[in-house]
Structures
1.
Amino acid sequence: MINLRTSLYIVAFAMFIYGLMGLTGPRTAVRGNLIAAAGMVVAIVATLLTPHIGDWPLIILGIGLGVLVGIPAARQVKMTAMPQMVALFNGVGGGAVALISWAEFRHSGGFAGDAAYVIVASLFATIIGALSFWGSLVAFGKLQEIVPGRPISAGRLQQPLNALLLLGAIGCAIAIGAGDHHELLIIGVLIFASVLGLVVVLPIGGADMPVVVSLLNACTGLSAAATGLALNNTAMIVAGMIVGASGSILTDQMAKAMNRSIVSIVAGGFGGQVVAVATGDSVDRTVRATSASDVAIQMAYANRVIVVPGYGMAVAQAQHVVRDLAKLLEDKGVEVTYAIHPVAGRMPGHMNVLLAEADVPYDQLKDMDDINDEFARTDVALVVGANDVTNPAARNDPSSPIHGMPILDVDHAKTVIVLKRSMNTGFAGIENQLYFDPKTSMLFGDAKTMVGKVIEELKAV
Ligand code: TAP
């Protein structure tokens, strides 16, 4: 039986890793997801083969409830609400880990007689699991707009408060480690860590939540791995480490693509407000507005067009009309590609997901590094609701808050059309130098409506 279980676990791990590899590209992502899910079923079956696993009716009830809630929730969730969904799923993982540690504490009479590494791993899992659960719930609330998205902080008292709560949790944990088996101590660990989870995430702005969710996801993975260590369960160790490692890499890549440190994201206070930008006297402050008919003519006579989608395309749900526009242009012999910035939108892969939903062929989606050299030989760059990811200040202006953030070199194209509703700023709250470039024309309006108008005009060209 042990050999069968071990073999099944190895099969499950191979499927997790193979599935994860599939998630690296849009073409293989769905298959990768299914393989990893099947791997999880194998791991659950292997775990259920453990002798004296426990109360079967309770286990079946738990699985039944999970299936009943999970499947309809995943089916009904809109693509745009995916970050909230991930926050919830991640949160319950952390909560489960914290509860397992509490149950083990009771079961073992306060970890009495357990090896030191078991006690340390269990207490680590309790703290991180409870923190991730409550932190993820706040992230869910902010993304769902149940909790205000603006930073809610205790001002100068914030850091001392965080430190006090952390010390409280660690203090109770040390007392347990030192041999005190009183249950109030583990409840103390849970309460301190839970409140810490709440007060750490509340001061972070709503738009930074995807990064926070990814960070908490990594924490949940690590806490699950620690529980696996304590329970001597290989599946939990491996799955937890995979989640911890992939979550950490994703968080790091998101932070790098925004040119911000993870510490500055957690410290909050970025985005949402207008920041004064040093533009220099020499900059021409005139903006040129254009019309749908002019844009149609300009694009109809172009050889190459690059579409640059951003958050505004997602808000307007304009991906379908953008695809129709691209098809129409292709019928007229224009070469169309899409430039995808790694943090365009508000969640990892946001633009890929929307454009895939609109059946845009994958080979037309080009990553930033692959397309940036192409802008110089492009007749028209059509920016649809993207702002920060096209701002040349990131390259040219050392005083800009986004200086150093890699951007799409839209300003290298021969002409640029920017489609947005107003001169309002994007997520970073700063003015975009691109709009004042003499070769840029602004097409003001809602992305879906205006692309629709351009399509009508294009049909008449
Ligand atoms: P943003 O810089 O946020 O700009 C989006 C623009 O869309 C706005 O300037 C807005 O201008 C326009 N817009 C909004 N609704 C529109 C509509 N209905 N029709 C047309 N335009 C509309 O977007 P971006 O360029 O995609 O950059 C993403 C930003 O989010 C970056 O700063 C990034 O660091 C940050 N961020 C990204 C992530 C991930 S993982 N993707 C996570 C957290 C933060 P108007 O109001 O004038 O229309």
2.
Amino acid sequence: MKRQRLHAALSDIDQQHLTRRRTTVDGFVEPGNRVVTAVDGRTLVDFSSNDYLGLAHHPAVAAAMSECALRYGAGSGASHLVTGHGIEHARLEEELAAFVGRERALLFSTGYMANLGVVTTLAGRGELVLLDRLSHASIIDGALLSGARFKRYTHADANAAERMLEESSEDVTVLATDGVFSMDGDIAPLSQLAKACKAHNAWLVVDDAHGIGILGDTGRGSVEQAHLTPEDVPALVGTLGKAFGSFGAFVAGSRDLIEFLIQKARPYIYTTALPQPVAAATRKALEIAQREPWRRERVLALTTRFRKAAREARIPLLDSNTPIQPIMLGSSQAALQAQQELLDEGFRVIAIRAPTVPRGSERLRVTFSAAHTEEQVDALVEKLSQLRARYQTLCETESE
Ligand code: PMP
């Protein structure tokens, strides 16, 4: 873009009600309770964070981070392959591999980079990558950067994916999908995708950013919930900045897969290693998440409570049983207005607009945390129910 165009481009974004603005959290009203935050001097209940298990502010997690910082320093000083790989990284990788039942796990600085790393390493020029139409941006960017051609199948439609696998004249190397879709909260048809990938000898990459720590009998995520084995899902991505309340991500898989990523994945190789205190905090969070299954049970119970009350209040819901509960508004303007009205009542619920979601499916993205109270959830439903009376689109949206 020419320099002179920049200002006009910003105006265009604004006219479409698509300007993104940051709000700055300037404190937590109750220390240790992330859901009650202070923004611009106001107290708000946060219903948009991904801190599903309420671990981001856990005193033991924060203590693990600060103790490690005093011992090993705040920064790792170099990339993993130079001198940045530390004992906390090594231990966390072992613990994550054990947690998800894989031979090895490899830490990445972010989930965005983990997806770039795994897709670019497994796919390349002359090959084909298949993606769900609602795949996370980082999966799409991985496919773009890989140099492979990529096609997107209808959202969560395993039959469509299977047809693409069968009919494609090119070699499909990778099929990548979110486990839980970040904006809709629904779960990918993993069993059927796994079967189809096996039959066509394609890598199934599952990004379980929003499932890990929450779903399945023991919180191992959407892959556990679907009763799939490491053989079924040979490349599993998990993020650590959501249910585990810290930061970073990992890819888990066979010894060879991880070794290959260490040799080839540029987003792993050419970046400074995650600070060790972050790894130490994650280790503590992982330990607490396993020791306290009530966190998982609680966030799911709050989700069920919300859905029941929302149905009674005739608030249209999508077909999601995860802590991600979108409320469709249908336009950027309506979504922003609803966000503002909720803000005025003390609720921090963020409007999600294009291009993060397709045009016409603008929404409020409501998420729950084990740290919410029943009263906070009920109060949100009450307010949404008042909004429903005024937002036509909210009433017209298909319910389940
Ligand atoms: N995958 C999905 C499905 C996500 O929702 C996100 C984060 N929003 C990421 C990957 C990226 O993870 P991170 O924030 O650690 O970069």
3.
Amino acid sequence: MNKTLSVSAINNGTVIDHIQCGNALRILHFLGLIKNEYQITLGMNLPSKRLGRKDLIKIEGVELTPNQANEVMIFAPDATINIVKDFNVTQKIKTHLPEQVAEVFLCPNLVCVSQDKNIDSIFYIDEQGKHVKLTCHYCERAFDKDSLKVKM
Ligand code: CTP
Ligand code: ZN
């Protein structure tokens, strides 16, 4: 059989697979993994039977929590999250889109009260078919997930 992995297997950690192209960097950024010293392998625009093309993230030595896994769904509703131990997939985390998300995003509305550094943003999440919409708790405006900046 002529089957090779285009990104090598990991020993222990988390694999976030089937990420819609273009979302891998936002997810890494959101999980706060870029600034830390984790061993990360990143695949972008890899061929996928299910999605045509996909992004893929492998994080050695980190097990995402169920909460983090659910928050990843905001960026990539079709993603699958696998926990690897001793080179074997030991768990495929069952995820669902959270109802709300706090602190992660900045409201794009420049006159929104949440622009104040002392106020944590809160967005309510709605799934409309393939689109994920987030409504700001403070100004009540709705935004597409792709138009929101992740807080640094
Ligand atoms: N993987 C890995 N290192 C391992 C084991 C698996 O990086 N030691 C990765 C695989 O490359 C794959 C993901 O983890 O991207 C899921 O592995 P597996 O369940 O074996 O793949 P599939 O059968 O393709 O699962 P699914 O279609 O549910 O994603
Ligand atoms: Zn707002």
